[in-house]
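>> received
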Amino acid sequence: MSETPKNTLQYRSDGPEDAPVLVLGPSLGTTWHMWDRQIPELAGTWRVVRFDLPGHGGAPAEPAHSVAELGDRLIATLDGLGVQRFGYAGCSIGGAIGADLALRHPHRVASLALVAASPRFGTADEFRQRGVIVRANGMDPMARSAPERWFTAGYAAAQPAIVEWAVQMVRTTDPACYIAACEALAAFDIRAELGRITAPTLALVGAEDRVTGPGDARTLVAGIPGAGLAVVPGASHLAPVEQPAAVTDLLVRHFSTAWQAVPDSTTGLTAVPAPLAVPAPMAPVVPFGPEAPAEETASAPVEPPAGPDAYELGMKIRREVLGDAHVDAETAGADAFGTDFDELTTRHAWGEVWARDGLDRRTRAAVALAALATGGHLDDLAAHTRAALRAGLTPDEIKEVLLQTGLYCGVPAANAAFRVAGAVIREETTPRG
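>> returned
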C-alpha cells in the first residue's frame, strides 16, 4: 500500500512485479481483504493489484458519484503504476467498474470476470433508500444487515468471526462515500450495451445469492458475446469469501485460458504473455451444477436513442427525483383523458425547469416542499418529502424548511405539512427488517 494521490484509489500489489497484471475489485461495503483467500494462488502467476473504494478500509473519504468516476480513478491508479493492459475480476460494484472499463477502455481490459454482478443492480429506488437510511441512522443498519445479504445462513452460523469481520468492515465505512456509491449503482444500467463488451468474460455467481443471483449472471451471459457462466454451490453474494477454493480455481482457469492479445503496433503480430500461455486452452464456459447458459435466450439489445428530447429528459429526472415506484404508479393509473397533461408536465416541469442548471437538486427539493406546504398540496408534499430525503436533505433540514415556511404561510398549513412530512420521514428512515 502507498499514499493515495487525489483522484486515484488506495491499492495493494502482490506477486511478481514483471508478471501480467490482474486487478481485483471489491464489493460495496467491503475492502480489498475480501480477496485475501485468493491471493496465495493468484500471486504465483500474476501481479495482483487490489483496491479499496473511497472511504472504505481507511481509504481517503473522497466520494465518487458514478461507476464511471470510480473507473476513471482506477485507470489513473494503474497509470501511476505503469500498467496498461490487465485482467480484471470484480465483485458486485467492483464488477460494475470492470464492465464499465471493458466498454470505455476495451484496449486495456485483456480478460474480465464479473462476480455477483449485474448490468443493472436492483432498482434505483432501492439504492437511494439505502442513502436515506444511512443519512438518518449512520452505517449501523447497513452493518447489521450485511451478513444476511452476503452469506448463506449456514455459513454465517458456522463462522461467527467472519460475520463480525463483515459487520465491522461496513460499520467503519465512511457514510458519505457509501451513499455516493449507492447513487452510482442507482444510475448504473448497461443492459443495452452488453453486446459491445469484447473482452473474454466469465460471469461467476453464488447459487444462493439473493442480491445479484444466477438470473442476473445469465443476463450478462446472454448479452456479452462468448461469455461463460459459473454458478458456485453453497455461496451467496460474497462467494470469494464463502467458497474461496472454488472461486480461486474458476479465476485461475478463466484468466489462464482467456486472455485477449492485442496486435503489436510495430510488427502487427499478437502475443499472449508467457505465464498465461497454455498448450490446450479449456472451454471458456465453466458451469457448476445444473446451470448452463446454452438454454438461455434473450432478445437483441435495444439501441438507445441518439439523444433525449425534453420529454425523455423530463421522464429521466422525474424518475430520479420521485423514484421509479412512484412514477410507475402514476403512469399506470393514467387514462387517455389525462395523457396530454402528463406529457406536458413531464416535458415542461421536469424536462425544462428541473433540468436547469441554476439550482442543485437539494435546493429545488427544498423549494418544492415550501411551495407545496404553502398551497396545502399534501399528497404531492408526501411524494416530495421522499424525494427530498433521497436528494440528500436530512430530516432536520426538512424540519427547518417547514418551520421557515410556516412563518409565512400560516400555522394551520404548516401543522398539516409537519404531520404529513413527519409520517413520511418515520417510514423512510426506519431500517428495514
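>> Residues 263-307 have pLDDT under 50 and may be disordered.
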